[in-house]
């Protein structure tokens, strides 16, 4: 009986093929799906910056917007990889140095984990009320639809479970943002989030909030990892959906010694 990862690395032979193929959507439809989501994410950023140009710079001090920009850039990069795979049967990602491939995998982890932290903190701690139709659309896009995008990236591609080794990097990212928040206070005179202000409820409460966000994010990491494992187990082991591959991919597709038919 093959191990999970032996079975998970169904052809296309390169394990990174899981990042630009889907168990459900044929490659052209998977490409279109990513293009539509990417277009909407870009639209949110463009409209927000055009309607509130004075806020364009300060937005980079907010974890919400840093995360949303991260999602958008990931979608753009993934769209390019998916397009190259659909067009040539090979993705650019496959020819990248191993350290860049690792960083792409880490990038994927941030996209499927951190939006849940943003959504949870906003609706549980920060939400008051929508003051305008634009405010409602903007906040729903970056504080709710961000997690919808994360969910789709968990469910639709053939990505394998995110590795535990990524947790220290997530901790470093959160710690790095904490530094950004206090640099913003020192240079621009405001706290990006009220719970980071120790003068409001005390340093102990602020530290508690920070530790709580960290612990919640690690828990969310574990949940996402488990959900991806479940998706792979259900779709591939139970129902045999081993992937929808590009017609341009001529590589041999074998799973447990049985040829897997190519499909576009």
TrEMBL record:
The keyword Membrane applies. The chain crosses the membrane at residues 31-51, 63-86, 106-125, 137-156, 162-184, 205-230. One of its GO terms (cellular component) is membrane. Keywords: Membrane, Transmembrane, Transmembrane helix. This is FAR-17a/AIG1-like protein.
């Amino acid at each position: 009986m093959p191990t999970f990862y032996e079975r998970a690395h169904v052809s296309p032979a390169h394990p990174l093929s899981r990042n630009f193929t889907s168990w459900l959507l044929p490659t052209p439809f998977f490409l279109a799906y990513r293009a539509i989501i990417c277009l909407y994410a870009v639209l949110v950023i463009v409209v927000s910056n055009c309607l509130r140009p004075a806020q364009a710079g300060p937005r980079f001090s907010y974890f919400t917007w840093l995360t949303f920009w991260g999602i958008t850039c990931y979608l753009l990069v993934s769209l390019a990889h998916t397009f190259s795979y659909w067009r040539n049967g090979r993705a650019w990602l496959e020819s990248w140095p191993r350290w860049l491939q690792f960083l792409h995998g880490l990038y994927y982890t941030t996209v499927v984990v951190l939006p849940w932290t943003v959504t949870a903190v906003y609706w549980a701690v920060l939400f008051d009320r929508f003051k305008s139709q634009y405010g409602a659309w903007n906040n729903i896009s970056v504080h709710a639809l961000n997690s919808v995008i994360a969910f789709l990236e968990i469910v639709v591609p053939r990505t394998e479970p995110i590795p535990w080794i990524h947790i220290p990097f997530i901790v470093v990212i959160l710690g790095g943002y904490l530094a950004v928040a206090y640099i913003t206070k020192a240079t621009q005179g405001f706290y990006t989030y009220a719970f980071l202000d120790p003068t409001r409820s005390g340093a102990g409460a602020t530290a508690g909030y920070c530790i709580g966000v960290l612990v919640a994010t690690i828990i969310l990491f574990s949940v996402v990892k488990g959900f991806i494992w479940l998706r792979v187990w259900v779709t591939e082991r139970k129902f045999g959906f081993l992937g929808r591959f590009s017609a341009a991919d001529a590589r041999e597709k074998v799973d447990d010694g049985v040829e897997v038919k190519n499909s576009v």
